[in-house]
């Protein structure tokens, strides 16, 4: 039986405790904050600082980070275009479930392709998806090279490395653009928090820290 045959026999099971009820219990507006940018742009660093700040405000969060997911849920996937797409699809489905569970989800994945990020927006839902472009030029990412990966990619030891021999498609209309070249970590993180506050995204009590 093909996957198509299986899914045509499925009926979505509704539950009495729904997304709104779970969000109400947590006293927050669930959302996915989707960070995208080159390797070394600062996604994980900013995601971590943001989660610390949100936890400090009593928000319930979950951080999904590239390598961690690739070591578990997505360990069967590589870095071909098709595998990158499947990686993002699974993360988006996971993000959708966590948002449904009432959490503020922060994701830190290069997510290089526009179409894949749009797929993630569709899966999670437009109203709960905030695309944040961590905009750091390739030259600066290469200078930082926090994991030593650019050095390896330039030496031909890693194939399909984003920015070197695999494309990065910058967002054309991100909800928010973060400039890590001119703003320090604290400022970058504060800008995201301010954006969430402005859109009423972190719920009642959010400004009490
Ligand atoms: N304003 C800034 N915001 C975030 N990181 C910064 C900033 N300025 C300098 N950095 C440095 O840039 C590096 C970013 O590394 P980080 O691991 O966060 O990148 P990443 O985008 O998660 O990369 P990868 O996709 O490989 O996981 C860190 O060493 C961090 O200290
Ligand atoms: Mg990272």
Strand neighbour order, sheet with most strands = 2-3-1-4-5
Ends distance = 54 Å
DSSP summary, beta strand count? 5
The CATH architecture assignment turns out to be 3-Layer(aba) Sandwich
Give the quaternary arrangement of the chains: single chain
Overall average residue pLDDT: 92
Bound molecules: adenosine-5'-triphosphate, magnesium ion
Ranges where pLDDT stays below 50 over 5 or more residues in a row are 203-209
CATH topology: Rossmann fold
Task: Report the biggest beta sheet as strand number plus sense, adding barrel if it closes.
Answer: 5 strands, parallel
- Which CATH class? Alpha Beta
Q: What pattern of helices and strands is seen along the backbone?
A: HHEHEHHEHEHHEH
Using the alpha-carbon principal axes, give the shape. Answer: globular
Estimate nothing, just give the exact number of structural domains: 1
* Sheet/helix structural class: alpha/beta
Q: Can you offer a commentary on this structure?
A:
It is a single chain. The protein has 209 residues and is of the alpha/beta class. It has one domain (18-198): P-loop containing nucleotide triphosphate hydrolases (Rossmann fold). 44% of the residues lie in helices and 13% in strands. The chain is built from nine helices and five strands, in the order ααβαβααβαβααβα. A five-stranded parallel beta sheet has the order 2-3-1-4-5, with helices on both faces. Helix 3 (43-56) crosses helix 9. 33% of the residues are buried. Mean pLDDT is 92; it is low at 203-209. The site of adenosine-5'-triphosphate has 20 residues, from helix 3 and helix 9.
């Amino acid at each position: 039986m093909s996957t198509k045959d299986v899914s045509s026999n499925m009926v979505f099971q509704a539950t009495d405790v729904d997304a709104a009820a779970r969000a109400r219990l947590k006293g927050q507006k669930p959302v996915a904050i989707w960070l995208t940018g080159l390797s070394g742009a600062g996604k994980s660093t900013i995601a971590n600082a943001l989660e610390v700040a949100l936890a400090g405000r009593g928000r319930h969060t979950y951080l999904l980070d590239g390598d961690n997911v690739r070591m578990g849920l997505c360990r069967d996937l590589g870095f071909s275009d098709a595998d990158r797409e499947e990686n993002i699809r699974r993360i988006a489905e996971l993000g959708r479930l966590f948002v449904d569970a009432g959490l503020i989800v922060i994701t830190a994945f290069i997510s290089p392709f526009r179409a894949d990020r749009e797929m993630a927006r569709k899966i999670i839902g437009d109203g709960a998806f905030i695309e944040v472009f961590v905009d750091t030029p390739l030259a600066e990412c290469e200078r930082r090279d926090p994991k030593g990966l650019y050095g390896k990619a330039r030496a031909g030891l890693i194939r399909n490395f984003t920015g070197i021999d695999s494309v990065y498609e910058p967002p054309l209309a991100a909800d928010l653009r973060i400039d890590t070249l001119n703003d320090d970590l604290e400022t970058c993180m504060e800008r995201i928090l301010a954006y969430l506050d402005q859109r009423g995204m972190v719920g009642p009590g959010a400004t009490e820290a």
